[in-house]
Amino acid sequence: MVSDMYKGETALHIAILKQDLDIVRLLLENGADVSNSRATCTCIVPGNVCLCYFGEYPLSFAACTGNEEITKLLIVKYGAPVTAQDSLGNTVLHTLVLQQNKAMACHMYDLILDLVPLKDSQCAEHLENNDGFTPLKLAANEGNIEMFSYLVKRQKKVYWTIGTISYSIYDLTNIDTWMTQKSVLDIITSSQKPQVRKLVDVTPVKELLSQKWKSFGYKSFLVWMLSYVAYMVIFTTVTLFRPLKPLPPGEGDNITVMKQKDIFESYESTEDFARLAGEIITIFGAIFILVSEIPLIIKLGPKKYIGNASTGGPFSLLMYGNPILRFYQMVCGS
Fold first, then answer.
1. What angle do helix axes 145-155 and 135-142 make, rounded to 10 degrees?
2. In 3D, which of 30, 15, 113 has the Cα closest to residue 67?
3. Is 15 inside a domain boundary?
4. Cα separation of 32 and 48, whole Å?
5. CA separation for the pair 157, 279 (Å, rounded)
6. Nearest-10 crossing angle of helices 102-115, 118-126
7. Last residue of a domain, one of 130, 152, 182
8. Ramachandran region of residue 144, left (φ > 0), alpha (ψ -120 to 50) or beta?
9. Domain span at 298
10. End residue of a domain, out of 130, 159, 175
11. Which of 43, 53, 66, 68 lies at 20 to 30 Å from 180 by C-alpha?
12. CA 321, CA 192: separation in Å to the nearest integer?
């Protein structure tokens, strides 16, 4: 079909949607293409008029309708590739993550990976779509807790079990931040979706965050917090004791009774030089705060940086606005 509404749909796609196994068999026996047939119509591909998203390939159509027999037929007998990616970079596994029927999606996910060799299944699970998401990361980005938990459990290895006690190891490759800039933790902290934030209570994310906090997070937080509190105390003290002198009679209005001293009058006594030390600390502290955050701002981009919960969100504007204004005040002498 060539109409935008049905572009790319073949008789095989339609037969699969109707779950007509006999017609599907007949089409396949007569040479229907399972590897290159792609339905790129507007009613299938996400957009303004998308009615549902079943991917583009016959295999993803069969998987998303939950038809086991057609799925087995396509993979086992006709070699439909599980690593084929549509125009969005999604494989059949990505497509299953996006389905509303979570139980069906999990069941078909298991079925598909059981039908292909281990090498192909591992490759399919680690393929990234155009947004850089594997099926696991896509589930996290969508806030699909049920699918995320299922995928995490699929990847864990149980070494031994005694009664109700078991020893398991989870694969943290896509969850922790050491290997990629788009880890599950990055997705959670940068997402604006409330359901995504709930993933912090899901195993093993909860345990990972707890371990990070106990190992180095608490110490790092304490050092930065105390340093910033000390910086703000110095900044406040310097501001309170800024160099002022009384206005001469008849100068100014009824409200203003003090004015800024000239630069040469500001540093004469011991107290003035103590204040100068505080001002120097304030200036260098402001520069350090700004410079230390520049690499992260460049990495994430200003928009994502401000919206990222791990960097303080909108509070970062206040934190950096303060040293900028202080630096401006010191340079301009007002």
1. 150
2. 15
3. yes
4. 30
5. 57
6. 140
7. 130
8. beta
9. 210-332
10. 130
11. 53
12. 24
Token pair 């990361």: residue: 137
Distance from CA of residue 123 to its chain's centroid? 22
Indicate the number of domains in the chain: 2
Between the alpha carbon of residue 43 and those of residues 40, 46, 100, 152, 275, the distances in Å are 8, 8, 17, 32, 69
pTM above threshold 0.70: yes
Tokens of 260: 């800024």
Cα 169 to chain centroid, rounded: 23
Task: Read off the CATH number of the domain in which 83 is found.
Answer: 1.25.40.20
